Amino acid sequence: MTAHSTVGGPALAQRRQLVTEIPGPASRELLDRRQRSVARGLSHVLPVFVTAAGGGVVIDADGNSLIDLGSGIAVTSVGNSAELVVTRVTEQVASFTHTCFMVAPYEGYVQVCEELNRLTPGSHDKRSALFNSGAEAVENAVKIARHATGRQAVVVFDHAYHGRTNLTMALTAKNMPYKDGFGPFAGEVYRVPMAYPFRWPGGAAECTAERALDVITGLIHAQVGENRVAAVLIEPILGEGGFIVPPDGFLPGLAQYCRDNGIVFIADEIQSGFCRTGDWFACDHEGVVPDLITTAKGIAGGLPLAGVTGRAEIMDSVHPGGLGGTFGGNPVACAAALGSIETMTKEDLPAAARRIGEIMLPRLRMLAERNPVIGDLRGRGAMIAIELVKPGTTEPDAAAAGKVAKACHAAGVIVLTCGTYGNVLRFLPPLVMSAELLNEGLDVLEEAFANL
Ligand SMILES: *Cc1c(COP(=O)(O)O)cnc(C)c1O
Question: 54: helix, coil or strand?
Answer without folding.
Answer: strand
